[in-house]
Design goal:
With 230 residues, this protein is mostly helical. Strands 1-2 form a two-stranded antiparallel ribbon.
Length: 230
């Protein structure tokens, strides 16, 4: 096991800042989605990303019933015509919201963390990103809760979220395996870390005095420092 001083603890913070910067770019950079950055505000219209982000914020604030075209148009101070330039109907927007959530909250995080050489740095980078309070103006904890409440009503959404959860846990387990944990232990610890994160999100909403990011980060750092091959 390497001493803690051999792990570059500044790299995760640099990566987190880099990802925040990337997230400020128009949605679609990096080939993650079908949307083009040039679509935003084209010819005076709002682009698809504007509608998706507005829908995500509305979802976080009021649940799936708050995601209505008329309400989003008022939020954006525009007409519904801009919406229909990009989406055929509300279900198409909701599908795009799920695509956006998965791309930004999972695909991009994994892709960016994989640029770091040391698995410990990858784990700490993922933790720093996961603990961000907001993403594009949407409260992260409330967004996760609203998505899961929506999933309780819609089996297709539930399947999509289950797939994302599985991929997130699998990635954590993959990092832990690279640190020397055997397959079963890596899966168990990866699941535990993810459950702790979901608990942190719930605490932010219902028990903010307990929602201490340092406690969650300390838990992960103990697991990292105890790795057989750190």
């Amino acid at each position: 096991m390497l001493p803690p001083s051999t792990v570059n603890h500044t790299a995760p913070y640099a990566l987190a800042l880099a990802i925040v910067f990337v997230h400020t770019l128009p949605y679609g950079c990096g080939g993650l989605t079908r949307f083009r950055s040039g679509d935003t505000m084209a010819s005076g219209r709002y682009g698809p990303q504007d509608w998706i982000v507005a829908a995500l914020v509305a979802l976080a604030e009021g649940g799936i019933d708050a995601v209505r075209i008329e309400k989003l148009a008022r939020r954006l101070n525009t007409s519904k015509g801009s919406f229909y330039w990009h989406f055929t109907d509300r279900p198409a927007l909701l599908a795009a919201v799920l695509d956006f959530w998965e791309a930004e909250g999972t695909n991009l995080v994994i892709h960016s963390a994989d640029t770091l050489e040391h698995p410990a740095e990858r784990m700490l980078a993922v933790v720093d990103i996961a603990l961000l309070a907001t993403e594009k103006g949407a409260d992260v904890a409330r967004t996760e809760a609203a998505l899961r409440a929506w999933a309780a009503e819609e089996p297709v959404v539930a399947q999509r979220i289950a797939r994302v959860d599985e991929r997130r846990v699998a990635y954590l387990a993959e990092i832990l395996a690279l640190m020397g944990y055997d397959g079963a232990a890596a899966k168990l610890l990866g699941t535990g870390i993810y459950l702790a994160l979901m608990g942190m999100y719930d605490a932010r909403r219902y028990a903010p005095m307990l929602a201490d990011d340092r406690a969650f980060r300390a838990l992960v750092e103990i697991i990292v420092s105890s790795a057989p091959q750190l």
